[in-house]
């Protein structure tokens, strides 16, 4: 599974949040205004996502509807694993050290991490 460009990921997020199958109009309503994307831009992104195997497309009357093939959880797991491999040599310790040294972890975060580790992850 390849990493999605930001624009395609935003479209996928909209599809995941809505109740599939979703129409182009529903997706456009959800993200089009924020991004000032034209409906044709969103349709192009949807077509790319179908071609890449992230979405399936069906026709209902005159309207095309889209459903995810890959869940948000599946995608994020793959992306996280790739990120960890690429940047931290698969070391959770290096990641946590970076977050801690960069003041990215609050005391609450540290307590939650301890609890998570104590419960077997």
Automatic annotation (TrEMBL):
Tell me where on the tree of life, at the top rank, the source sits: Bacteria
Q: Which Pfam families match?
A: Penicillinase_R (PF03965)
Keyword Plastid among record annotations: no
Gene3D superfamilies recorded for this chain? Penicillinase repressor domain, Winged helix-like DNA-binding domain superfamily/Winged helix DNA-binding domain
Its source organism is Listeria fleischmannii 1991
InterPro entries in the record, alphabetically?
A: BlaI_family, WH-like_DNA-bd_sf, WH_DNA-bd_sf
> Cross-referenced SUPFAM superfamilies, in alphabetical order?
Winged helix' DNA-binding domain
Q: Which GO terms describe its biological process?
A: negative regulation of DNA-templated transcription
MF GO annotations: DNA binding
Keywords attached to this entry: DNA-binding, Transcription, Transcription regulation
UniProt keyword DNA-binding present: yes
State the name under which the record lists this protein: CopY family transcriptional regulator
Member of which family? Belongs to the BlaI transcriptional regulatory family.
């Amino acid at each position: 599974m390849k990493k999605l460009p930001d624009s395609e990921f935003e479209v996928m997020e909209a599809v995941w949040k809505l109740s599939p199958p979703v129409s182009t109009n529903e997706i456009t309503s959800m993200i089009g205004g924020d991004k000032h994307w034209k409906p044709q831009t969103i349709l192009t992104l949807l077509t790319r996502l179908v071609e890449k195997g992230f979405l399936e497309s069906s026709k209902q009357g005159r309207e095309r509807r889209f459903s995810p093939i890959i869940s948000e959880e599946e995608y994020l797991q793959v992306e996280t694993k790739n990120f960890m491999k690429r940047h931290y040599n698969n070391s959770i310790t290096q990641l946590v050290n970076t977050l801690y040294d960069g003041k990215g972890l609050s005391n609450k975060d540290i307590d939650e991490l301890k609890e998570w580790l104590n419960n077997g992850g």
